[in-house]
Amino acid sequence: MSITLYNYVLSGNCYKVRLLANLLNIKYETVAIDFHPGKEHQSEPLLKLNPAGTLPILVANGQVFTETQAMLVWLAQQHDPSCSWWPINNANQLAAVVQWLGFSSRLSATIGELRLHSMLNNTINIDSAQHGAKICLRELESHLTEQRIIGQQWLTGDQPTIADVACFPYTALSPDAGIEHDEYPLIRGWLHALRSLDNFLTMPGIHELHELGSTIRDKT
Amino acid sequence: MTTEPIGLAQDLAPKGVMRAQIGHADMAIWRSTSGVISAWENRCPHRGMRLSHGFVRGESLACAYHGWHYDCDAKCHYIPAHPELEPPSTIRPAIYSVVEKAGIIWVNTAGTATPAELPDRLLGLRTITMQCDLSTAAHAIASAAQTNAALFNGSVNDINSDQTILSLANPNGTDGICILFQQPLAQSTVIHVLAHDSYSQNELIAISRWCESVRREAERIMQSSNKVEPAK
Ligand SMILES: N[C@H](CCC(=O)N[C@@H](CS)C(=O)NCC(=O)O)C(=O)O
Ligand code: FES
Which residue from A3, A137, B99, B230 puts its CA 20 to 30 A from A167's CA? Predict the structure, then answer.
């Protein structure tokens, strides 16, 4: 099986794919794309693969995907025999997962855009992106509150799914867009839970909970 | 200075770090792996990094910047760049008195924390931040209590005279929910909502959504009053 990810390290969408692949122990190749300043994703060879001129692009056994959510579905469906990350055997939960995949696009369109603006100075409508980001984070916080009331820790149940993976990066990266997590205690707890999973993967701006590595010294 | 509620105890799990502000005091509150809670000035004695960005390592908080480790007594006991050095005992952030009672974390920035007396059998529901002042929030809560007969009987009581703790009775007339106001910041009011343990899960969800409606209403009132009377 051959899987190739056209990747940019600072992209939150590329990170979703790398994160799930790591969590599920999937081996893949990467092709590093000079997104900034080279704009290589908008060069002719890349536009042949993805006319939309966006990253990530995943080529899996010859099939080309240009939407992150499709990549997550494909990876989980191929590599998760327990069917917990993409719960095809439970109609209600499966629909809830797709609902939160859709929500993750709203996070990209608000927090993701604000972050690109503060990193690359892209032109965007800042007020409307900030307002949209606040609406999204409040909705997520309220949903996690309701999940806690019914005794569930993750977005759609008591196990993480690709919905949690899809919503994680831009929520975690919101401080890059100028939005701190101070107002959102349940979001903080959920981010912490995701970062505590086995085989969690970092990216610039999302470090490990055990970042100091061998220098950790507990006072005993 | 009084003792202020700054969060629900269950929202700060072991290994968790959070930031809270009371008036001009900016603080990092963290819980060690074994469960010990501490509230410190949010400023690393080394170069002033916010300690709320730090990481919990067992029974220490490590600053995110250069990794200085502080133990639960706030004493710096490890500097990664000088592992052999025993740091002077004077290196410590300012500490505040913090206690947990009735599912709430209480902090006093100028004295010993003495939590308010609350009715029994309340459980933490959620903390919610509203972009409005305290009186607008209190007003929106009082009017919303009248219109939700399934959850509340409409009566709103001040538990203390300064209106920083309100209780709304449930339809049987007994304790329903309790709302604690944290000393407001310039732009926002933080409330902590506790609910009686007799509410069902569906009722708790309804109360959580009621809080969101209250917030939308309070922020609408605030926005329209800002239009009439520009902020000073
Ligand atoms: N195809 C969509 C959108 C992906 C997307 O917007 N990616 C960003 C990078 S994170 C991008 O390539 N933007 C193009 C640009 O800014 O030039 C998806 O996979 O969710
Ligand atoms: S600023 Fe905290 S360790 Fe340097």
Answer: A3
